[in-house]
């Protein structure tokens, strides 16, 4: 049986003020899996992602990351588990503008001994691994450039390299292509998924755009979980 990297069981969360309720009887992302999670604005995507990351705690049920129930962990334990096992690719990238391209990509390895040790299995330094990733994503000539000087598409590739470094077990990509046109969306996704496949990293791609689903092995829709 394939091991689940991320699993939600009988999950329930409700906002008292709005009455919006999310119920997820069962959802999982397995090792090396590629899952497209589709949902319109207001469908609860951000709520579910926050539950998956342990930022919100469910009122019923549980979320497990690498077999550990997030509700049973302290905030610091949850933070450590996330940085060790999950690479995040945010819609707004969340790059540090005062750092160079290379410095941004190596950041996860400064906070996670596990990801640093995984990175060092394939090179002598973390920087060499970051350079390899950036080159594979077409960003090898921008290593020392401040990320603030890059185009949106270039920043996106830097964010992808940062998410991939150290071979996390899962990448959660939240609307990662919303700033790109259709042609560049598909090109970027192919690069991301190819790199993830090479290191057996699972990818959870969350978007309102159904065109992105074709590159993933499985498709789920938020509508099935709205109470």
TrEMBL record:
GO terms for molecular function: ATP binding. Signal peptide: none annotated. PROSITE patterns: ABC_TRANSPORTER_2. Residues 6-225 form the ABC transporter domain. Gene3D superfamilies: P-loop containing nucleotide triphosphate hydrolases. It comes from the Bacteria. CDD domains: ABC_MJ0796_LolCDE_FtsE. The keyword Membrane applies. It holds the Pfam family ABC_tran. This is ABC transporter ATP-binding protein. Keywords: ATP-binding, Cell inner membrane, Cell membrane, Membrane, Nucleotide-binding, Transport. The keyword Membrane applies.
């Amino acid at each position: 049986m394939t091991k689940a990297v991320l699993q939600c069981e009988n999950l329930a969360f409700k906002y008292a003020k709005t009455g919006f309720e999310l119920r997820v009887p069962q959802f999982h992302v397995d090792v090396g899996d590629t899952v497209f999670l589709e949902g319109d604005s207001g469908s609860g995507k951000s709520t579910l992602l926050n539950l998956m990351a342990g930022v919100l705690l469910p009122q019923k049920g549980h979320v497990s990351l690498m077999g550990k129930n997030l509700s049973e962990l302290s905030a610091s334990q949850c933070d450590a588990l996330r940085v060790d096992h999950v690479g995040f690719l945010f819609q707004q990238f969340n790059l540090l503008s005062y750092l160079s391209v290379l410095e941004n990509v190596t950041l996860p390895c400064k906070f996670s001994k596990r990801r640093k040790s995984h990175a060092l299995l394939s090179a002598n330094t973390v920087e060499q691994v970051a350079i390899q990733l950036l080159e594979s994503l077409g960003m090898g000539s921008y290593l020392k450039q401040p990320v603030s000087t890059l185009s949106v598409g270039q920043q996106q590739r830097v964010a992808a390299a940062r998410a991939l470094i150290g071979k996390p077990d899962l990448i959660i990509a939240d609307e990662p292509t919303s700033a790109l046109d259709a042609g560049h969306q598909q090109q970027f996704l192919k690069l991301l998924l190819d790199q993830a496949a090479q290191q057996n990293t699972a990818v959870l791609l969350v978007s309102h755009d159904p065109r992105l689903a074709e590159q993933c092995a499985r498709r789920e829709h938020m509508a099935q979980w709205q109470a």
